[in-house]
UniProtKB/TrEMBL annotation, chain A:
GO molecular function, one term: glutaminyl-tRNA synthase (glutamine-hydrolyzing) activity
Gene: gatA
Name of this protein: Glutamyl-tRNA(Gln) amidotransferase subunit A
Organism: Cryobacterium luteum
Keyword tags: ATP-binding, Ligase, Nucleotide-binding, Protein biosynthesis, Transferase
Function: Allows the formation of correctly charged Gln-tRNA(Gln) through the transamidation of misacylated Glu-tRNA(Gln) in organisms which lack glutaminyl-tRNA synthetase. The reaction takes place in the presence of glutamine and ATP through an activated gamma-phospho-Glu-tRNA(Gln).
SUPFAM superfamilies the UniProt entry points to: Amidase signature (AS) enzymes
Residues forming the catalytic site: 80, 155, 179
Automatic annotation (TrEMBL), chain B:
Subunit structure, as described in the record: Heterotrimer of A, B and C subunits.
This enzyme's EC code(s): 6.3.5.-
Designated name of the protein: Aspartyl/glutamyl-tRNA(Asn/Gln) amidotransferase subunit C
Name of encoding gene: gatC
Domain of life: Bacteria
Task performed by this protein: Allows the formation of correctly charged Asn-tRNA(Asn) or Gln-tRNA(Gln) through the transamidation of misacylated Asp-tRNA(Asn) or Glu-tRNA(Gln) in organisms which lack either or both of asparaginyl-tRNA or glutaminyl-tRNA synthetases. The reaction takes place in the presence of glutamine and ATP through an activated phospho-Asp-tRNA(Asn) or phospho-Glu-tRNA(Gln).
Keyword Nucleotidyltransferase: no
Chemical reaction(s) catalysed: L-glutamyl-tRNA(Gln) + L-glutamine + ATP + H2O = L-glutaminyl-tRNA(Gln) + L-glutamate + ADP + phosphate + H(+); L-aspartyl-tRNA(Asn) + L-glutamine + ATP + H2O = L-asparaginyl-tRNA(Asn) + L-glutamate + ADP + phosphate + 2 H(+)
Keywords: ATP-binding, Ligase, Nucleotide-binding, Protein biosynthesis, Transferase
UniProt enzyme class: ligase
Similarity remark: Belongs to the GatC family.
Length: 515, 98
């Protein structure tokens, strides 16, 4: 039944609907694959095997009874550990929440349960989503399925690695400065950050509330669209949730698969997101993709976004400022661990300080202290106030660009996956890695990353980022699906079919009797 | 160059309610100085006539009807607490005795 793990969510859905395959069979195939490969990759922090099989059995019974179900009913899914799940531990990759089982589900989790998807477990991430490599998880690293010595991106490295290594066809992620798109780029998978407010954040453990967005992770654009349709739309429990009526993203992706979908589409190439600092193979694959777009009838224009140069600086003021406030809730009273100080009196204040010392990792402390500094009297105007003005300038750059073009494109990340430890000692080197993805969060516009080939110098995946105006998420799916189809036709295969087989551990596991 | 001192980091850690070891204070003083130098460039373009943006999608006054809706039970609300006393969260002393 290994072939079931290779299928897209859409293809698996067809087999489930025609009842050629049961949800239990599909779920079991994925659980067996997790057992075989995840000891090594460590994409999952928690696997809920029994619960997944029970859920799948219920879906099979309902389908057998003739009930009309969502097309994704019975399809397995992995959930980033930043999302509250009332039947699974939710830690956000932090020791401070070790073992916490929330008393409620995040809205997106409730929606995927209602649609009959089968949660397999929770995926690894940088602690509280602070990082671009998943090396800042308190529970150990996740390996990139393309090269076990390299990072799977971050903060959602677990979700991206799970999907790229066929442990799940779908996953949920969250994207504050690129945490869905950058892991997608470095693992050869697809990730979408929806318009700010397009998907509910109720039950998503907050990092920076004016930037955070929940979105789909998958292997195909169409699969991401199917999942977006399940999780998107207004939620009264999230007061930043938009009240729009959204078009079907799946229909938008299907439209992209029609002939001539790219003819006349105006594509803007952002001048500031290229050149120096971009790996040669990344630039090469990006330029080849532009040539394919021209051949398919798209109109390419270079556009300038002069204030993007200030985006990383503004982001690393706004994010720590908001995070320092959001993470004040970890006070050792309502949830999470409590640690008493080794000396001194046992007051709430001392216990809180000792708990946060023991419970937070180095990167979380660094950002809380930085945010506290940016918000403190005497510095507020120079730092936080200025960063908010830069945000206005970046929104104006987007507005000017979108007055000329339909979508904007750039490489999703300046480089392919880097090696473990390469950027750990230098926080700014890690931060600058998000230069391509941060502007979309600052402006609230939607962004998508799709694979566009392997860099010739290292054989690792390269991603294309596509951005659209706020609320025009559907356009991303049309254009993204069209480009994906063009590229696959030119290659003669999908991107992830080229990933190295994870056989060594599979053989090892079968010796242990795990498969 | 920004001048972040160890004293300043100690004070920020107090404000943020995080105990830090002497080694952590040394490291953070160094990191913070470097980061602040890199991000101070925001003031280059933030002119007085540029309005600030706090939120990507301007929404104001999001209200709901003032009616009782389902919420967590006491047991659910207390389920993750490190300590409880009956139906309440138990906390250490609020005031220092000395």
């Amino acid at each position: 039944m290994t072939y079931l793990t290779k299928l897209s969510a859409a293809a698996l859905s067809d087999l489930l609907i025609s009842r050629e395959v049961s949800a239990v069979e599909a779920t079991r195939a994925h659980l067996e694959h997790i057992t075989a490969v995840d000891t090594d990759l460590h994409a999952f922090l928690h696997v809920a095997g029994d619960a997944a099989l029970a859920t799948a059995a219920q879906i099979d019974a309902r389908r057998a009874a003739g009930e009309e179900l969502n097309p994704l009913a019975g399809v397995p899914i992995a959930i980033k550990d930043v999302l509250a799940t009332q039947d699974m531990p939710t830690t956000a990759g932090s020791k401070i929440l070790e073992g916490w089982i929330p008393p409620y589900d995040a809205t997106v989790v409730a929606r995927l349960r209602a649609a009959g998807l089968v949660p397999l477990g929770k995926t690894n991430m940088d602690e509280f989503a602070m990082g671009s490599s998943t090396e800042h998880s308190a529970y150990g690293i996740t390996r990139n399925p393309w090269d076990r010595d390299r990072i799977p991106g971050g903060s959602g490295g677990g979700s991206a690695a799970a999907v790229a290594s066929f442990q799940a066809p779908l996953a949920l992620g969250s994207d504050t400065g690129g945490s869905i798109r950058q892991p997608a780029a470095v693992t050869g998978s697809v990730g979408v950050k929806p318009t700010y407010g397009g998907v509910s954040r109720y039950g998503a453990i907050a990092l920076a509330s004016s930037l955070d967005q929940v979105g789909p992770v998958s292997r195909t654009v169409y699969d991401a669209a199917l999942l977006h349709d399940v999780i998107g739309g207004h939620d009264p429990l999230d007061s930043t949730s938009l009240t729009e009526r959204w078009p079907s993203m799946a229909a938008a992706a299907a439209a992209g698969l029609q002939d001539d979908a790219l003819r006349g589409v105006r594509v803007g190439v952002i001048k500031e997101l290229s050149g120096d600092g971009f790996q040669a193979g990344v630039t090469q694959r990006f330029n080849e993709t532009l040539a394919l777009l021209v051949a398919a009838g798209a109109e390419i224009t270079e556009v300038s976004a002069p204030n993007f140069e200030y985006a990383v600086a503004a982001y690393y003021l706004i994010l720590p400022a908001e995070a320092s406030s959001n993470l004040a809730r970890f006070d050792s009273v309502r949830f999470g661990i409590r640690v008493n100080p080794e000396s001194g009196s046992l007051t709430s204040e001392h216990v809180m300080s000792a708990t946060r010392e023991a419970g937070f990792g180095a990167e979380v402390k660094r950002r809380i202290i930085l945010g506290t500094y940016a918000l403190s009297a005497g510095y507020y105007d120079a730092y936080y106030g200025s960063a908010q003005k830069v945000r206005t300038l970046i929104q104006r750059d987007f507005a000017a660009a979108f007055s000329q073009v339909d979508v904007l494109v750039s490489p999703s990340a300046p480089t392919t996956a880097f090696k473990f430890g390469e950027k750990l000692a230098d926080p700014m080197a890690m931060y600058i890695n998000d230069v391509t993805t941060i502007p979309a969060n600052l402006a609230g516009v939607p962004g998508m990353s799709i694979p566009i080939g392997l860099a010739p110098e290292d054989g690792l995946p390269v991603g294309l980022q596509i951005m659209a105006p706020a609320k025009a998420d559907a356009r991303l799916y049309t254009v993204g699906a069209a480009i994906e189809q063009l590229l696959e036709a030119s290659w003669g295969h999908t991107m992830l079919s080229q990933a190295p087989a994870l056989t060594p551990t599979e053989m090892f596991a079968s010796e242990e009797g795990a498969v | 160059m920004s001048e972040i001192t160890a004293e300043q980091v100690k004070h920020l850690a107090y404000l943020a309610r995080i105990d830090l070891s002497p080694l952590e204070i040394t490291n953070l003083t160094h990191d913070l100085g470097q980061i602040v130098d890199s991000i101070a460039k925001v003031s280059e373009v933030a002119t007085a006539d540029t309005p600030a943006t706090s939120h990507p999608m301007p929404l104001t006054n999001v209200f709901r009807e003032d009616v009782v809706v389902p919420s967590l039970t006491v047991e659910q609300a207390l389920s993750g607490a490190p300590d409880r006393a009956g139906d309440k969260f138990r906390v250490p002393a609020i005031l220092d005795e000395d």
